[in-house]
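pinned: reference chain
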Amino acid sequence: MTAPDIFSHRKHWAYKLGTAPELPMSRAEMDLLGWDSCDIVVVTGDAYVDHPSFGMAIIGRLLEAQGFRVGIIAQPGWTSVEDFRRLGQPNLFFGITAGNMDSMVNRYTSDRRLRSDDAYTPDGAAGRRPDRSVTVYAQRAREAFKGVPIVIGGIEASLRRIAHYDHWSEQVRRSVLVDAKGDLLIYGNAERALVELAHRLARGEPIEQIRDLRGTAFMTRGRPEGLSDGWAEIDSSGLDRPGRVDPHPDPYAVSPKGTDANASAATPDGVQVIRFQPRPQRTDRTRTVVRLPSFAQVREDPVLYAHASRVFHLETNPGNARAMVQAHGDRDVWLNPPPIPLTTAELDRVYELPYSRRPHSSYGEARIPAWEMIRFSVNIMRGCFGGCTFCSITEHEGRIIQSRSEESILRELEEIRDRTPGFTGTISDLGGPTANMYRLACKDPRIESSCRRPSCVYPDVCPNLNTDHAPLIRLYRRARAIPGIKRVLIASGLRYDLAVRSPEYIRELVTHHVGGYLKIAPEHTEAGPLSKMMKPGIGTYDRFKELFDRYSREAGKEQYLIPYFIAAHPGTSDEDMLNLALWLKRNGFRPDQVQGFLPTPMATASAMYYSGRNPLKKVTRDSERVPVVRKQRQRRLHKAFLRYHDPENWPLLREALKEMGRSELIGNGKRHLVPAFQPAGTGLSPEGRRRPGRTAVRNRRDAKTQP
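pinned: its structure tokens
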């Protein structure tokens, strides 16, 4: 898998205008830069923070490095078009993104309650972005300047690129391309596609003819113009059914005389000449498109939805993925194969572009919580090969790890030390989607490019996976040695099933990089839900904890693991949650916060939740049924099991334990899960409501505002 270097393009003429201290958000700022117009205007649902942890900053600075003038419209008012005209008409296109999070995940909890704050907004204020921001912003941008191409991207567009289950409306929705009326959708890490798109548009190529970019999706009728002939279509729009089994051709078979010019025949001297029959040629994957079940089919048939999810996830490896197509009415959504991952050299340059590393000056003294959380951290890699079914990282960033060089990471640490306000010597994180996948990859590139496994670590670590943590250990040691860096903490999620393969890494981590507590995510203890999450068994956690405790003692430190668990995940029964609660009590854990399963668009677990089938295996009408937790009372119960120690949950737990025939767990001894008594003024009624009072009245009032 190779592609031209993203910095190899000839720069657009505007590079002569130089680099902007910060990308402009107003016409006054454009005037100061000497710009009469913007080539590209990026509209985002987040506040503009010029830092490489924010998507709009990476895209803006990368396009600026290509010579384009890029303006930012951050968190515009969406009830009119005025904010969308703020920077004038862009010369090339509008780039539309909801921001670093899906807008619905950002605004609502898993129980569909409005969140009270927004970490990506000045002072954490809620309500500064609309529901389904990509669609709303795209429609307003088109109203503001008709005829300007609309390019949608970011995680919201990426995870909604085909028909998808939408938890908030409880229905299957169309591809966001249809609703947003975008000219092009760019999914995943967008650098390659965006750079080439901008240069081709600048050369005058119409966006309707740009149909060959990897990592893009678009609407079409029939085969797209601009693609050469010779494409084959594989129809996966229905469930696979057993059909006629044709015998393998006999290579020694002799065709009847006269039926084939190349058939075996006898020579004049009587010698029989045998010509071998050629093996049928395989379809060229680069010129093959897979037809998914249509939007109408998956909307009406949950089993076909699960089938479509399985087919989709089998076509995510850039080395062997085929194009896919899904009908929406009389048009198709066409998805080109995923983008080629960036090389280390390309990733280094992307992260070393001239970011100011702080929020736009127009925000003044306002706090932006998301920036405060990451301003002393460094991204060292992208991607995740874990394949956890409830997580969308793999669907968005891909399974192949893209790592920066040590030197680039160390230079960014020095940048933080020298330029970031408030730095006191502590780096809050060196990580990414995971803490310990840096430089890990398949041992053989040929195997990697042909692999179709959804995970490299489930049901066990693949023998072809290089799990050597030595490069990461070396990076940690060099980071600690930088003058002015007093401490380097690790806050990204840790894959402990990989870490146990490298005890030396655990020793290094525990001795130098844990600030008293380390968060890890077993997610559950029981085999049923773990198999649907594609997570390792709790025995792996036990092995990691043993090493963690041993090396903490050797370092003379008192340190603790903080395990995270998910309630109400597909495949989870009430008994599973009870067993988890008993494990928590036995091990002395009392979680303060619990996470309920949230079906995000396009995740495999979301397909399980909607369909009740398991798309990790071949889907048929008779395939495995997956128990799903839908009713609010059962969801509350599963959360209550995680917070078994909270008196507010005891009435619900007592009732459930009696229904389950486990009344022996109710009592006041150590072996009991919940006590038989109830403190005055606490507890939920059997219906799950608090006893009447001011808090209950407020909660009922707030609930009326929910959609």
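why pinned: The longest helix spans residues 538-554. The longest strand covers residues 560-567.
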